Amino acid sequence: MAQAVTASMADGSHLLVQAGTGTGKSLGYLVPALLHSLENKRVVVSTATLTLQSQLVDRDMPALLDATEKLLSRRPSYAIQKGRNNYACLHRIREGAPDDDGMLIDIPPAGPIGQQVIELRDWAEQQLLDGEAGDRDHAPSHQYQAWQQVAIGARECLGAQKCPYGQECFAEKAKEEARKSDIVITNHALLSIDAFENRTVLPEHDVVVIDEAHELPARVTGAAGAELSPQMVERAAKRSRRFVDDDKADDLEDASDALRAALDETREGRIEAANGVVLEAAALVRDAARALYTDLGKKNDDKDDDPDGAKRQSRGAVKEIFDVAERVAALSSHDVVWLVDRDRFGRELRIAPLTVAGLLRELLLNDRTVVLTSATLTLGGDFDTIARQVGLRPADRIETDDDMPEIEDDSPTGPLPWRGLDVGSPFAYEKQGILYIAKHLPPPHRDGLGTKQFTEIIDLITAAGGRTLGLFSSRRAAEAATAAVREATDLTVLCQGDAQLGELSREFVSDPEVSLFGTLSLWQGIDVPGSTCNLVIIDRVPFPRPDEPLMAARQRAVDEAGGNGFMAVAATHAALLLAQGAGRLIRRTTDRGVVAILDPRIVTARYGSFLRASLPPMWPTADREKVLGALKRLQDT
Question: Which helix (H) or strand (E) holds 418?
Fold first, then answer.
């Protein structure tokens, strides 16, 4: 892997490298990154999760630099850079935050949240005194609402030049540290924002390493998406009122009322040209926000008393409303707009790109070398599916140096040569794991799990003596399975939602006889090596919901282009999750166990071979008795 990464950095080709759990893939790209940085060429490393980010900064980089210090001409430097909202804002802490009317609030809310805000303020001041980073990962325990009282988004930031605390700002110090560093470690969201904003967020660089690259399309979709709700519009209007004539703020409030009325009479789901009332309301919001934004930019001696920067923050909020409303009203063929009804917060519009492949190709891949790595990059047995998702064309794949085309310019329509490499795994999957497909069970149905599935789960977990990670396609299924096992056995089963996920994970890892059932966040975000987990149960193939607007729109677009939308979107989504879920079982060379899939479609349906080819190569069987016997033997060892 290190040789392949070095070659890509040298010749400018892109690289997709699948490196299974336990291969040490972070060293496989960090060693070439160190060598590349010695030529005064900066490398950006992007991760999807805070866990890996922390691992790189706190463990891998220091160990690698210590080990190589005597071999290198100098000790390369590194820094971590996150989005502005991840750092405490001294202006917000010391001056307060504007409320909906633009007035300052300096008193934290009452109750537990208020106490957390006070603790966060004290912590931030101590971080400043100690010369620490002031980032959320090292903050005292708190809830999201409390953090929002001490942090601020990029849109509302005053900027280092205008903020009275710009010289002390945690976020600005992190940016400056990154500018002085050879290797910058960031996350997919900030990498996306940097690409969308013409490279103004991260320091200049010519190589990007993307770890957990299977997550990149989803994270870019999130960064390129947005929301628009009547509450957001109304709040922006109220915050601006003290700086403009009332009629301009009134117009935006009226537009928020029109948007609320339009959403109330519209069904949930995708918004299309036929939903004229919603598009007209979005246009009203757009026009009112444009007028208010213009007015906020004018000099007004009677209303420009703005020592706290609230006017600038209000203008930023109105600009964000304008940008989203303009995009919604345009209803571009490149975007998907849909309506959701949130139980506590009411109805809102969401918008996201139909595909991010073109964005990634133009803004990320076109003029930089990109190395994409993950334990899961081959779906259906090859790299083509992931390559297309990130903006690479299968036809541009090269096998040898002789295949490298002559590239005369940086046109995004030209070839972008790339290599694919699977470095394998240190695990003997066929000896360490059994893939059990419960072929005798009926196919799953919309009403959830049935009696036969519950019986199968109870028998499997009993044979394993607990030690089970249950991965379910819905919260309702996880809760129903938990209740069934608790009623039929004396085994301890934790269910996602019983407590904070971190707390549940720690209890699961600490007691081998405890089992943990849950949904999507457990499919990818938990590491449970050893006897803690001898059995992974997957209740069904995790296809996206057919009424999920963005996925449905992407599937339809592929169909209309002459492709197979189901395979390109739904089956690919399911294959990726299955591979990640099954990968929870074998995390060390000493691990043993069973992955049990309770959905017979993986062997009976035509798409089953594609799904199976995406899974680790464990020994397959449909023999129930053999599997129960193997689990009992593992329990006894």
Answer: strand 418-422
State whether 155 and 196 are in the same domain: no
In a domain, 624, yes or no: yes
Q: What is the pLDDT of residues 368-411, one digit of tens each?
A: 999 999 999 999 889 999 999 999 999 999 987 666 666 555 55
Enclosing domain of residue 197 = 2-83+172-221+355-422
CB 80 within 8 A of CB 185: yes
CATH assignment of the domain containing 438: 3.40.50.300
Residues 560 and 625 in one domain: yes
Q: What is the rounded average pLDDT of the residues 338-364?
A: 92
Does the residue 99 lie in any domain?
A: no
Q: Is there a domain that residue 256 lies in?
A: yes
- pTM for the predicted model, two decimal places: 0.87
| Segment of 30-39, 44-53, 143-152, 522-531 carrying the highest mean pLDDT | 30-39
- Regarding whether 439 and 300 lie in a shared domain, the answer is no
pLDDT (tens digit, 9 = 90+) per residue, 556-577? 999 999 999 999 999 999 999 9
Same domain, 264 and 400: no
pLDDT digits (tens, 9 = 90+) for 26-41: 999 999 999 999 999 9
Assigned token pair, 340: 């959701």
Interacting residues of 478 by C-beta distance below 8 A, sequence separation 6+? 470, 472, 495, 496, 517, 518, 519
Judge contact between 255 and 292, C-beta under 8 A.
no
Residues 484 and 584 in one domain: yes
Which residue intervals of 437-519 are DSSP H helices?
A: 451-464, 475-488, 501-510
What CA–CA distances, in Å, run from 563 to 566, 569, 609, 613? 9, 11, 19, 21
Number of domains the chain contains: 4
Length of the chain as a residue count: 637
CA distance 219 to 50: 13
Check pLDDT > 70 for residue 109: no
Q: Is residue 446 part of a domain?
A: yes
Q: Could you tell me if 403 and 464 lie in one domain?
A: no
Query: Residue 609: what pLDDT?
Result: 95
Q: Over 90: is that where the pLDDT of 22 sits? A: no
